[in-house]
Design a protein that fits this description.
The complex is a heterodimer of chains A (490) and B (68). Chain A has 490 residues and is mostly helical. Chain A has helices at 2-21, 30-35, 42-53, 56-69, 80-98, 104-111, 115-147, 154-172, 174-204, 207-217, 231-244, 249-256, 261-275, 278-291, 303-311, 314-351, 357-381, 385-398, 401-407, 416-436, 440-443, 449-452, 457-476. With 68 residues, chain B is mainly alpha-helical. Chain B has one domain. In chain B, helix 1 runs antiparallel to helix 2 (37-59). The longest helix of chain B has 23 residues, at 37-59. The interface between A and B is large, with 44 and 35 residues.
Chain lengths: 490, 68
């Protein structure tokens, strides 16, 4: 137990030191701090984006889904988002470079020539980011508390992890996240491969025998059911998340940090192979199904750790805990930085245009602990509603997709009024759905199951697109059609 | 057909190939490479999709336009 705590502490300190050292030799202007001076090559972008794949959600959530929902969890093995990324991210990058953009909200301000729209996007982005950060912090608490065999209070861990994050983000900005991502990736790959191979072999004598044992105990568990998490749920959810994946404010920032469009293209080709390692997280979660039965509700997220602490000595559990700690800290730090930049540059600066760049840079840094505290407060006070908020967050950021994609068409059919109305309508529907828990089958009770199981996120997106187009057509009359004379998009 | 056109078609195949197949998968059997069929299908399309996107990257005229 002491050993496992020691290992976790060691990795926390190493990541803190690396994060602080990452600053060396750089003057920390806001551009350096938040997008690394746009100098990150294929490898660093790869590591930052990979941070998006291996969050605490992938580690705990994916194994938990495998444990609780079976075949529906296979949707995590997909690369549809990277196909969209291949075509879209180089365009976002070159537009960002051309106009020196630092945030997602900057993109809207520039592309639609509207400060108001920039503020709306910044506010929606912030609302979506906070629950995402809360998820990382909650995961951090679970991981370290489980890995220390219950000896460390989750609250203490959450505080310590958050303080480490605040310190290196304030000092080194995105450079700190990139360097911590390096250790994180090696550690997590090792841990995931080890768990995913060892557990099935140890308990079942192999991978296929494990699946057969599960299928024998729970017939049909490893394919999709006819209703509920059915094929139409599965496909619609994958397509929806493939649109939302790159719409998070912090993912946008990671795109700007690239050195070239080709760095992003290569990255989009390489990342799917890396995502394949999620397969081993699924193996580990599946191994737990028959070995630590009886977890339900939110507790399915504990499956991976329950089976680990039951199987391994404290040294190995310590390494698993350290890997888990880093899966929370790396994405967490990126989220914190994006939230702070969004607030300083896109809300404060928009309201007070005469603030100097230096003041904005300082404010962004001082907003880091503020957002960390807001997230901490929600972590300690929020209950089950967090998962709800997270799904809502994904639904919210997906609403940006139509306006961003349309901007890169030869002739953009959308006006700023159209985008404003569309995003507002989409956001209201996402919020309404999250609060009322409405589903397709409650809205359309007479429709066939194949339609009822479609992910409800499509409704918000569909309404958003229709409203955007209609309002754009109306507002285009008498106004010069908005084309994009500035950039030539190939 | 232009090279760009071929790139778009290959990308569409890489995107829709997996979802179309999922519609027809009804059971965990047959197990292939030790995986339930649905999981095998997902893994297969990560590999196929990546291979297709590598070809796309070779053909894509945008790649050479850019000075690194």
């Amino acid at each position: 137990m002491v050993i496992s705590i020691g290992i976790i502490t060691f990795f926390l300190i190493v990541s803190l030191v690396l994060g602080i050292m990452a600053r060396r030799g750089k003057d920390m202007s806001l551009e350096q701090w938040s997008v690394g001076g746009r100098g990150f090559g294929t490898i660093f972008i790869f590591l930052l984006m990979a941070g998006e794949i291996y969050t605490t959600n992938a580690f705990l959530g994916t194994s938990g889904w495998m444990y609780g929902k079976g075949g529906a969890a296979f949707y995590n093995i997909t690369m549809l988002n990277f196909i969209i990324a291949y075509w879209l991210t180089p365009k976002i990058w070159s537009y960002g470079k051309k106009h020196q953009l630092l945030s997602q909200s900057d993109f809207f301000t520039k592309a639609y020539n509207s400060k108001g729209l920039g503020i709306v996007v910044a506010v929606v982005g912030l609302i979506a980011l906070i629950p995402y950060l809360v998820i990382q912090l909650k995961g951090l608490g679970i991981i370290v508390s489980e890995a220390s065999f219950g000896a460390i209070d989750p609250k203490l861990t959450i505080w310590l992890g958050t303080i480490a994050m605040i310190v290196y983000v304030m000092i080194s900005g995105i450079h700190g996240s990139a360097w911590t991502a390096v250790i994180k990736d090696f550690l997590i790959l090792g841990v995931v491969l080890f768990l995913g191979i060892y557990l099935p072999v140890h308990y079942y004598g192999g991978i296929q025998p494990m699946w057969e044992a599960i299928e024998a105990a729970k017939p049909g568990f490893l394919s999709l059911p006819e209703r509920g998490f059915s094929a139409s749920w599965y496909i619609s959810s994958i397509m929806l998340t493939s649109l939302g994946f790159y719409m998070w404010p912090h993912t946008f920032v990671a795109v700007y940090a690239a050195k070239s469009g080709n760095a992003l293209r290569k990255n989009a080709i390489m990342l799917p192979i890396y995502a394949l390692f999620i397969l081993f997280v699924l193996f580990a979660g599946a191994a737990a199904i028959l070995q630590v039965p009886g977890l339900s509700g939110g507790n399915v997220d504990l499956a991976l750790f329950k089976i680990s602490t039951q199987t391994f000595n404290p040294v190995i559990v310590g390494f698993i805990g350290a890997a888990g700690l880093l899966t929370a800290i790396v994405p967490g730090s990126l989220i914190l930085m994006s939230a702070a930049t969004l607030f300083a540059k896109n809300i404060y600066k928009a309201v007070k245009p005469n603030a100097t760049d230096k003041q904005i840079g300082m404010l962004a840094r001082y907003m880091v602990p503020v957002f960390a505290l807001i997230a901490l407060y929600n972590t300690f006070s929020g209950g089950a509603a967090i998962t709800l908020l997270f799904l809502m967050g994904y639904g919210l950021v997906t609403q940006f997709a139509p306006a961003i994609i349309c901007h890169f068409l030869k002739k953009n059919p959308l006006t700023k009024q159209g985008v404003f109305a569309g995003i507002t309508a989409g956001v209201i529907i996402v919020g309404w759905q999250a609060v009322t828990g409405a589903t397709m089958s409650s809205l359309f009770p007479s429709f066939p199951p194949a339609i009822q199981d479609i992910n409800i996120g499509f409704i918000a997106l569909g309404v958003n697109i229709i409203v955007s187009l209609v309002v754009s057509i109306v507002t285009q009359k008498g106004v010069t059609v908005i084309t994009n004379p500035v950039e030539k998009v190939s | 057909m232009t090279r760009k056109g071929i790139c778009y078609i290959l990308s569409l195949i890489a995107y829709f190939g997996m979802p179309i197949g999922v519609l027809f998968i009804r059971s965990a059997e047959p197990y292939i490479m030790g995986l339930p069929f649905l999981l095998f299908w997902m893994v297969l399309w990560i590999l196929l999709g990546s291979a297709l996107m590598m070809i796309v990257h070779r053909l894509n005229p945008d790649v050479h336009e850019e000075v690194e």
